[in-house]
Write a structure and sequence with these properties.
single chain, 300 residues, alpha/beta, Ribosomal Protein L24e, Chain: T, 7-stranded mixed β-sheet, 8 helices
Length: 300
């Protein structure tokens, strides 16, 4: 009788111990973030990624994401999981920022159908390029812009009624030009279905890592960042650009362009007077933008 009671006591203790060990696991599982934006990679073939470029394309905007995608490694496969190529309106060599020259792999007429499109900051797109973006985006998993590449994407009309971000120095111009797009200041990147926009320059690296995470999970994205010796954490927090949410204030001692916020030299900078105050600009184009709607750029 005593042995039976002891056996039941030990059995009860074992059950309670097991439950005590399982509770933290259950809590962890319940608290673990669920990525409902995950993407399904193809079973065998690599994911085709088109980098749309034209004259003036900013190097880090497309080379940063290119480096991310090329560095992804999946232990279970021997080939690269992403197939990368450049696309332009023609095969004519393109002169990018800083003078780098690139001969596009494909034109918009013969490029393979992409599952991911990367649109860096670049020159104004032609109607043919905009049409290619719109048609291709019908079947992409992600069409992403980097920096002022958001202007190119917005010109397609695909961002109308959606939220987006861009380079912090272009917030004012973007809001004026695309009033139907909800501009998110202070966002590292913004996702809307198969559309995504990144902030300026290095933000494209984070958005590319986020795309990798959506396809292959956080562990693969973390390993990719580790192998790149990239220590940025913005790809795990889309709201991590809050330092850029509020524009810098121009002062007499440290004057800034009233449109883009960059440093200016009052001795040589274009200027305008509005309501008794003098405003300086980086370029004549910024001055024209300001003069068209000064109220949009003046802090009240």
């Amino acid at each position: 009788m005593i042995n039976a009671m002891n056996a039941r006591s030990h059995s009860k203790e074992a059950i309670l111990t097991a439950l005590a060990l399982l509770v933290p696991v259950a809590i962890f599982i319940a608290a673990a973030p669920v990525d409902d934006n995950s993407l399904k990679p193809p079973a065998k073939d690599p994911i085709p990624v088109a980098f749309l470029i034209s004259d003036g394309a900013v190097v880090i905007d497309f080379c940063g994401p290119w480096e991310v995608f090329q560095d992804v490694m999946i232990p279970s496969r021997h080939d690269m999981p992403f197939r990368l190529y450049t696309v332009a309106e023609t095969k004519k060599p393109i002169r990018t920022s800083g003078g780098m020259q690139i001969v596009p792999d494909y034109t918009i007429a013969d490029a393979p159908a992409p599952k991911v499109i990367v649109i860096p900051a670049q020159s104004d797109p032609t109607p043919a390029v905009l049409d290619w973006i719109k048609k291709s985006s019908k079947t992409t998993d992600v069409t992403m812009s980097v920096c002022t590449g958001a202007f190119v994407l917005a010109k397609t009309g695909l961002l109308d009624g959606k939220s987006a971000t861009t380079y912090h120095g272009a917030f004012g111009r973007f809001a004026m030009k695309f009033p139907d797009v909800q501009l998110k200041r202070g966002a590292r990147f913004v996702e809307n279905g198969n559309l995504a926009t990144a902030g300026g320059l290095s933000s494209g690296i984070d958005l590319a890592l986020r795309v990798v995470e959506r396809y292959y999970g956080r562990e693969v994205a973390q390993k990719t960042a580790y192998n790149m010796e990239y220590q940025g954490q913005g790809w795990m927090n889309p709201d991590s650009n809050q330092v850029y949410a509020t524009a810098l204030v121009s002062t007499a001692e440290h004057p800034l362009c009233a449109v883009c916020g960059m440093d200016v030299d009052p001795k040589i900078a274009p200027k305008s007077v509005f309501k008794g105050t003098t405003y300086y600009f980086c370029s004549d184009d910024d001055k024209k933008t300001f003069d068209a709607a000064p109220d949009k750029f003046v802090t009240k």
